[in-house]
Amino acid sequence: MKTDHGAPILPSVTRREFLAAASTVAGAAAFGGVDSAAAAAHVLPPLPYAEGALAPVISANTIGFHYGRHHRGYLDNLNKLVAGTEFADLPLEKIVAATAGKADRVAIFNNAAQTWNHTFYWQSLKPGGGGEPPAALKQRIEAAFGSVDACRKELAAAAVGQFASGWAWLVSDRGTLKVVRTGNADTPVTQGLTPLLTIDVWEHAYYLDYQNRRADYVNAIIDKIVNWEFAAKNLG
Ligand code: FE2
């Protein structure tokens, strides 16, 4: 992935580009080959904006905990869980695919999928977002939902209606746009769907700012910071 050296902020990237970054393995060779199994690790991708850039919709405090503790926690757990296993050297997306639905791999799947989902979530938001989607995406949305507003409403309903923890997604199902929701760590990428954008509805995503008012959090995202350009890029 292209970055400015030392810069904490990345420009908006496509799904394919950030997946490559999320799958980056820091090889032991760089450290003189010391304990290669233990040294290989997935790396937390930088946020694509400053922690306070989404305020007041999402505060810097929430982003600080969400990105710095929760996202990092999933990634650290993943690195510990895969060390010394057949998954140690696999890219993140392959670990998600290889462990999905396997009862003896639930912990690895949960942490791998949550790592992937969160990287996708940060890209699904941007300062000054919301508004109207780019023309090509707008046409596809109108074909599937009738109007952009109908799409917004269906996405909001999925996010608000997801019982307990999970995610709401705009996806492409072999070219047809749909809204789906997933529980806990589950992700549409294991269901043959192409995610375009997502909203995290785990309480840690909004409770510091909105307490139990999930609908306010969801509607503020859709109105003000959803990144339609990222979704359009993911259409390919
Ligand atoms: Fe989260």
SSE topology:
Layout: H1 15-22, H2 36-39, H3 60-82, H4 92-99, H5 106-123, H6 135-145, H7 148-161, E1 166-173, E2 176-183, E3 194-200, H8 207-210, H9 214-225, H10 228-234
Antiparallel strand pairs: 1-2, 1-3
Helix pairs in contact: 1-5, 3-5, 4-5, 7-9
This protein binds fe (ii) ion.
Q: How does this model look, in words?
A:
The chain has 236 residues and is mainly α. It has 2 domains: 15-49 and 58-123, Orthogonal Bundle (Helix Hairpins), CATH 1.10.287; 135-234, Iron/manganese superoxide dismutase, C-terminal domain (minor pseudopilin epsh fold, 3-Layer(bab) Sandwich). The chain has 10 helices and 3 strands. It has helices at residues 15-22, 36-39, 60-82, 92-99, 106-123, 135-145, 148-161, 207-210, 214-225, 228-234, and strands spanning 166-173, 176-183, 194-200. It has a 3-stranded antiparallel beta sheet. A hairpin with a 2-residue loop joins strand 1 (166-173) and strand 2. Helix 1 packs across helix 5 (106-123), helix 3 (60-82) runs antiparallel to helix 5 and helix 4 (92-99) packs across helix 5 (106-123). The relative contact order is 0.14. Residues 1-39 have low confidence and may be disordered. It binds fe (ii) ion. The site of fe (ii) ion (FE2) has 7 residues, from helix 3.
